[in-house]
Structures are given as C-alpha cells and as structure tokens.
C-alpha cells in the first residue's frame, strides 16, 4: 500500500500538497484493524477523503508524477475494497481532532478511532469556602475543621492543597488562608506550573512569574485576573479544567470543575483527597450530618467559651444572610452558621460567592442548590444531595 501511494518520494514534491493528502490518509487508517467488521467501512471513508484531497490539488499537481501515482493507487484500492465514489468521508482535518492540548479534541479523536459517537464527557464540581464548608465531587456537603494543610485534589494531572487556620480563639472553626496548585507537566502542552495564593496575596501569575503554560499562542494553561488581588481564574484547556479563587475578608475560597475521567486518575496512595472522598470522620464537625442544636432564636450562651460572642442571634444572622441569598439552601444555612460562629460578615459574601461559582461551573443546574432535609415541611428531595436536619440551622455546641 505504501509503495502504491509513493510515500517515500512525497517529501520531494511539497509544492503541490500531495504529501499532506497522503499523511492524512495514513493518519485515518493507521489505527484500523483488518480483522474488525467495520474495517472496510472506515477504510472506504478514508479513501474517499483521500480522493477529495487529491481533487482539490489537481491543478497545482498537474505535472507531478507522485500525484498521478496516488490518484491511480486510490482508484485501484477503491475497486479492490468495493468502495463507492459517493458516501461519507473521514474528517478532512485529522490534525484538529488529534490536538493533544485540547481536552474536547481528545473526545473527538476517540470517536474517530472507534467509528461511533461517544457520550459527551462528564464534568464534576468541588468547592471549599467559609468555616470551611466542602462540596465534594459527589455533591456531598460537609462542614469540617481540617486545621493545617490538606489535599483537596491529587491525581495524575493536578494537585490542590489548602491550609486552614483557626478563625476564633477557643473554637474548632477554621478557614482557608493558603492555596497551592500544581499543574503537572503534560506532553508538549505545558511544563509543570505551580500557583500559590495566601491571604492578601492573590497573584495573577504562577510562582515562576509567568501567566501561561505551553505555547503562548494557544494558551493551553493561563491565568486571568478578574478583580485585582481579589479574584482570579485559571483555565487548563488540555485537561478541560477551570479553577476560581476568591479572597473575601481575610480568607480564600476555591471552586473547580474537572472531567470525571481525570478526577479518577489517581493511585491508591492518593486516596486522601477531600474533593473525592470528603473529610475524615474525625475532622467533621457535622458528624455525618447531625448537629446538636442550642435553644432556637436566642443569643449564644454567656460564659460558654473563652472567646467573645459573635454578636448575632439566629434571627439577626438569618436576616443578614437573606439579604444576599433568597433561596434557603445549604449555602444560606452555611452563611447563618458562619455568622453565629465568627460574627464576621465577610462570611456572608463568601457563601454568596460560593453559590455563584456553583452556578458558573457546576454542569447540572438541577443540582446547584442543595437543600437540608426536613421531616416536617416536605422540602426534602433526593436524599443523596442533602444533609440532615441538624445542618438546617448549622449551629454546633462545640463551636460555642
């Protein structure tokens, strides 16, 4: 076959473009297996595409012997394989479908190789904000202490680590003051890039001073500063991943969307990922969703702790959070919880911002809002997206 198509001499006749036609044909057929049922179908599609390409070059290749040999070879092969002249053709831009630095291109390449339509990729969302509250890739919602450095994500492509510090002296409440992200080197798309943010230091560049990875023209990985010192976005097209980081008050929030198949590309030793498996039970404040509640609607008990009271009652905290969030979902109740715990109104903005990030990045609109389960008012829906009645008020005696 290669001798018929004159691959060996094509490089000597680059002016007429026959080499490109031949290279594309080889790309279309190199993965085909003659033992498979669809071999003839796919081979004929590739031959027709090859024929179309040679026709487009017929004028500039008029006196080129390699070109005429290819035309004769195509005709012979179509006769041998009983290919019709009319019919579907392989993509005329195989280099586009095989772009290794475009995640959506991976899917198209897979479709081309398999000869059939594959389902669109599934994207997952994870977010961390506030005291801190964690929404995992499985849409589970937890409230944890996790003081110190913890991995949110650690897989073949990406590592994200957060550091949480105590918010109020004498309380187990913590919040995030440092985020470190490592985009691992990937083929020719990007070298390893490290990003680090800390309270009052939210740079619009990686630690090496660059703002992108890979070819500067394609921007396979790049940072966009949305609000100076307060909000940045990172987009990695080669792994189909988007990251948002905000500073609200003295603490940081993070939201990320990533393809499911990449999220799950990790080793057994990398199983301690909060976004994948949630917080360890020993670090969870909500204890599987159940929180002991104080007397409703009253000030926090005097003398219960060594730190000052937040200054909010359940009623005033609810009113404050309702100014930003009209829907009483888990983000609303997280806001109430954080106000009662810390007295810091910036946590209201953090909860509201976290919900906006969900609406921007979460792929399924029906799952944007997570509602606490209630046995009384019937607002409970699909239990896998809910937390128990204890989180409905989000107040834990241990925080007082």
UniProtKB/TrEMBL annotation:
Its main location: membrane. Keywords: Autocatalytic cleavage, Cell membrane, Disulfide bond, Glycoprotein, GPI-anchor, Lipoprotein, Membrane, Signal. One of its GO terms (cellular component) is side of membrane. It is found in: Cell membrane. Gene3D superfamilies: Mog1/PsbP, alpha/beta/alpha sandwich (3.40.1000.10). One of its GO terms (molecular function) is coreceptor activity. Residues 123-363 form the Repulsive guidance molecule C-terminal domain. It comes from the Eukaryota. GO terms for biological process: BMP signaling pathway; positive regulation of macromolecule metabolic process; regulation of primary metabolic process. Residues 16-85 form the Repulsive guidance molecule N-terminal domain. The keyword Heme does not apply. It is a lipid-anchor; GPI-anchor. Belongs to the repulsive guidance molecule (RGM) family. This is RGMB protein. It comes from Chloropsis cyanopogon.
